[in-house]
Amino acid sequence: MDMFFRRADIGYCSNVHAGETVAEITQNFSRFMQPVCHHRGLSAMASGLWISAAAASELRDEQALANFKQALVQSNLKLTSINGFPYGGFHQEKVKDHVYLPDWSDPARLQYSKNLAAVLASCLPADHETGAISTLPLGYKAHWNAQKHQAAIRHLGELAAYLEQLKQQTGKRILMCLEMEPDCVLESTDELLDFFVNQLRPHVSCHEYLAVCYDVCHQAVMFEDAYEAMQRIVDADITIGKIQLSSALQAIFTDETCNGERDESLLSLLAQFCEPKYLHQVKCQDSKGMLKNSFDLFAALKNNSLEGNWRIHFHVPINASHLVHSQLKTTRDDLLRVFDFLRDHLAIRPFLEVETYSWQVLPSALRPKSEPELIRGIAAELRWVEAELQQRELLV
After folding, report:
1. DSSP state of 284
2. Which of 44, 266, 319, 390 has an alpha carbon 20 to 30 Å from 282's alpha carbon atom?
3. What is the mean pLDDT of residues 288-301?
């Protein structure tokens, strides 16, 4: 594997753009993705697409798939990874915990994932033998039980066998990458390792097709050190197929201002991030390092019972170190730890994909006012990634 990253292989996830059907997805090629590519001065660019279950079903038709592949070629986009986490409705007015349905205990999730794998195997560029699909970490913990857990393992085993057959038929190795997320069944690296090592491997053949998508925002919310977490994953011989380059929001409540005027101003600013569409889990650490949580930002603000600094699952622009207020910071430093890990592990080359899907629900002062402004914002994130990789001599 190439020890360097190429600029054209660093893309972003299209779940920032609304589009449930194949027609809507392909319209986004010329509307957004090509302009981002041009802003970067590239002739072609990797594309990490979100493809809904409805669109994946459409693409089971041979002619529809052929037309889709032609649209990728005409747009100079290379499909190398897919976001298979949201099943559908990701841009409806209220998503919240519905994003975790159907979960991995449901056969519908299995069929959706098979459809995506077939699409990716067909669309992978000729010079790519491997592609990656991210998927949810089994399901939402509050809705989980032992029966669901066993069904999920069975379905993942069936999927792994299907991916082995797909490899034999197409020569393409598709990795299904479980993506840890706060408040889900697999939210911590400890839970992930236990699941892979003690539950999947003893019962699932072809488990080498099941990998990890490391979302930097999610694990920053969990107060995990990105370098150490990824080291533990690779030490357990688990493949990191994709890294979603994302950054979380964090509120720094200092001791000096506790219960003071600046605290109230910070809470008022946080209220601007309290929007109705997506779930924004909040975590903090107590004095003993134990995690405390609120299931959503609106609940944390209403109760105001969390001590210490807050980390909030709100994907903010990854090139920003803080937003609006000096104590309203981001977890951008966690991305630097990821880049350091890649510098120190030259044999590990997952797909890198910026995933700031929440541009359109940022507070009005931070939200793009037009499509060209959104395009410039996404391109700026990608240029920042390139600069950090270049600084570590990882970019060619």
Report:
1. E
2. 319
3. 93
